[in-house]
Amino acid sequence: MTDQYPIGQAGKPWQAAEKQQWFATQTKKRDYFEDIEPLINALKADLRVEQYGVLNYDTQYPLYALKSANWHADLPVVLVTGGVHGYETSGVLGALAFAKQHAQTFEGQFNLLILPCISPWGYETINRWNPEAVDPNRSFYANSPAQESQLAMDYVNQYQASIALHIDLHETTDTDNSEFRPALAARDGKVNHNWNIPDGFYLVGHTQKPQAAFQKAIIHAVQQVTHIAQADEHNALIGVPVEQFGVINYDATHLGLCMGMTNAPYVTTTEVYPDSPNTTPQNCIDGQVAAIEGAIAYLAAQK
Q1: Counting CB atoms within 10 angstroms of each CB, which of 74, 114, 137, 284 has the fewest?
Q2: Max CA distance (Å), the chain
Q3: Which residues act catalytically here (predicted)?
């Protein structure tokens, strides 16, 4: 448990005034148009770049998808999403690094569909929520309250029947305990209970389609690049019982998580720990890329 968050009153959910007060404290810390958009545009030689929407906030943010240059309608689709939580940097950069390194690797096997930065405002302000104090990664359902989630779903839905694999790239950071969980508890008028931050990489599978062998294959691939988080004294990660080494499960559909937005039989969410003394920013990016590679290798082996 932590001290009361500085916005709102204990036990009382935020109303519009508190949300506005929270929004007024947010500041721009980095630039989507300088950091991310050029990396996306640089991939136009190897991938098709499509703008699938615009986020309408004080700043208008164009949203981009990357597609295999030679799209084959009869091939299964591999969906990669990053930056649903914009502050989780290696999710964004990992998606882009994978696109740069492997744009043509799977030509003729799979169609690649990559949404590298679903929440640009969150990227710029290093935030989990959007400007309306809504978490996009709890908002992937019909009539979503988050523009970020609704626009992504509207775009991805046209490929729904062909998506075989969806991997959503995330991080678990120290700020989960220092800022984001206390803010969440305050917003919802609840008591905050922090979790143990796992030191290392782990996966969150979907309880409705856990695919244990698939998750295990990804963990094995990532182990070649970076360390896997050990369970805590309760045999749990972030308060959830471990299903197998490095893997926990959430009901993604019930919770409105990004990995629950498709009918893909193989889905997972990655989590790296960038604050670990045993890793580096590049190592975190490499871990994300290895996770995608491991997931696709497993899918290819099922053919």
Answers
A1: 74
A2: 57
A3: 271 (proton donor/acceptor)
In whole angstroms, what is the distance from residue 142 CA to residue 275 CA? 35
What are the structure tokens assigned to 196, written together?
């143990």
pLDDT digits (tens, 9 = 90+) for 124-173: 999 999 999 999 999 999 999 999 999 999 999 999 999 999 999 999 99
Residues of the chain scoring pLDDT < 50:
1-2
Alpha carbon dihedral 154, 167, 211, 240, in 10-degree steps, equals: -100
Burial class (CB in 10 A: 0-12, 13-18, 19+), 280: exposed
CA distance from start to end of the chain = 48
Burial class (CB in 10 A: 0-12, 13-18, 19+), 275: middle
Q: What are phi and psi of 147, to 5 degrees?
A: -55, -40
Q: What is the pTM of this model?
A: 0.97
Q: Compute the distance between CA of residue 149 and CA of residue 255 in angstroms, rounded to an integer.
A: 13
Torsion over CA: 121, 46, 44, 79 (sign): negative
Per residue in 196-225, pLDDT (tens digit) is 999 999 999 999 999 999 999 999 999 999
Transcribe 269-289 into DSSP letters.
Answer: EEEE-TT-TT--HHHHHHHHH
As a whole number of angstroms, the distance between CA 57 and CA 75 comes to 37
Q: Which residues are catalytic?
A: 271
Would you give the DSSP letter of residue 258?
G
* 3-state SS, residue 71: coil
What domains are there in the chain, each with its CATH number?
Answer: 16-301 (3.40.630.10)
